[in-house]
Amino acid sequence: MSGGWPGIPQLSGDLPLRILRLQSDVAVTAIEELESKLIDYESRAPADPLEYAALLERIENITEEAQWIKNQIIKITDGGGSSSGR
User: Fold this and answer.
1) pLDDT tens across 14-43, in order?
2) In the chain, N or C: fewer CB atoms in 10 Å?
3) How far is 55 from 60, CA to CA, in rounded Å?
4) CA 1 → CA 8, 24, 63, 74, distances in Å?
5) Hey, what's the torsion of the CAs at 58, 31, 63, 59, to 10 degrees?
6) How far does Cα 32 stand from its chain's mean position?
7) C-alpha dist (Å) from residue 48 to 22, 44, 45, 62
8) What pTM, to 2 d.p., does this model score?
């Protein structure tokens, strides 16, 4: 056995990268679910319509940003790729 603690199996070297990808998947899914619930709740929300519209616009932007981040993580964990803009 090379390195590590005795009795503890060595994990695959790509496990941290796979976990990072899974975490980005979870984050995007959670934000998408929040966005969907906010859209569904819009007619019942006790809020000013303009404020709620601003909230929906912000969550849409956040969803897009989270998806972009997830895509960048996929590129990084796939071993590179070209660096490109949004």
Assistant:
1) 888 889 999 999 999 999 999 999 999 888
2) C
3) 9
4) 10, 33, 45, 32
5) -10
6) 9
7) 37, 11, 8, 21
8) 0.69
CA dist 28 and 26 (Å) reads: 6
Burial status of residue 5 (CB atoms within 10 A of its CB: 0-12, 13-18, 19 or more)? exposed
**pLDDT score of 81 more than 60:** no
Tell me the helix, strand and coil percentages in the chain, rounded to 5: 70, 0, 30
5: Cα separation from own chain's centroid = 33
CB 63 within 8 A of CB 32: yes
Tokens of 43: 């007619």
pLDDT digits (tens, 9 = 90+) for 36-63: 999 998 888 888 999 999 999 999 999 9
Smallest Cα–Cα separation from 21: which of 82, 77, 81? 77
